[in-house]
Design a protein that fits this description.
263 residues; alpha/beta; Rossmann fold; 6-stranded parallel β-sheet; 8 strands
Length: 263
């Protein structure tokens, strides 16, 4: 068993078959973002700093193209990962991801914000734990890094395709699950049909927060309009500063309540 963020032990289960089948609604979330694009463009504008977008398991850069386009329109320098389809390998991809982060940092001369969707968020947390001096902030979307991370509907397929068993990397898992040395936002949904939402929550603190998006799917979280608004708001914070997300914006009804930082 794994320990939850409050120190208790528990075994979690993957999301139900009903929630997994309901993932098809991700198409509706993309369409909603397209319809609401004029409203989304009212989000705070960017300062031009680099943002690296890391796709989820079995996804490619195409999955995050709408988000990168949105961030570029807001004024960020958005980068794709350019490694093809993500077949996993937290351990085997570490060197390549470090090199990628270095290249993005050197190209801009500025710290890099990293957005990771699902498995991409696990990579983002691993990069931040290894190279915090290059990372401005991290934002994860439905990423399984806490509690019992085997509680997903993709674990067996991940282990088969990556050749890496989740239980074979305890040191990396411990680092990824811990408090990050940079500002951290985890965006998740309790209706995620792939990843048990409890595995996606950080320990709230003065520089770490959770943002729950109601009724979002796993495959639609990166194109969900409420999630995109939250991402834009988080990226707009000045470097070296952190304030918790203000849920009073135009998508206020879509968010769960704010959590208090743990002492």
């Amino acid at each position: 068993m794994d320990r939850s963020i409050d120190g208790t032990e528990r075994r979690l289960r993957p999301p139900s078959l009903f929630l997994m089948l309901a993932e098809a609604r991700g198409v509706l979330e993309l369409n909603s973002s397209l319809l609401l694009s004029p409203l989304l463009m009212q989000a705070p504008k960017g300062d031009g700093h680099p943002v690296l977008a890391l796709p989820g398991f079995l996804a490619s850069d195409l999955s995050m193209a709408p988000m990168r386009r949105y961030l570029k329109e807001l004024g960020y320098d958005a980068y794709a990962w350019n490694m093809g389809r993500n077949f996993g390998g937290i351990s085997s991809r570490r060197a390549a991801l470090r090199d990628l982060l270095k290249r993005v940092h050197e190209a801009s001369g500025r710290k890099v914000s990293i957005i990771g969707w699902s498995l991409g968020g696990v990579y983002a947390r691993d990069l931040a734990s290894q190279m915090p001096e290059l990372v401005r902030s991290i934002i994860t979307l439905g990423s399984p890094f806490a509690d019992d991370i085997r509680a997903t509907n993709a674990t067996r397929l991940y282990e088969l395709l990556s050749g890496e068993a989740v239980d074979d990397i305890p040191d990396i898992r411990a680092a990824i699950a811990g408090d990050m040395p940079v500002p951290t936002t985890s965006i998740y949904s309790r209706t995620d049909g792939i990843v048990n939402w409890r595995t996606s929550r950080v320990r709230p603190s003065e520089s770490a927060e959770n943002i729950e998006v109601h009724f979002a799917s796993h495959i639609g979280l990166g194109v969900n309009p409420a999630a995109l608004w939250a991402i834009a708001d988080r990226l707009a914070q000045p470097e070296g500063e952190f304030r918790h997300f203000d849920r009073s914006g135009p998508f206020a009804i879509a968010y769960g309540p704010a959590e208090q930082a743990l002492s």
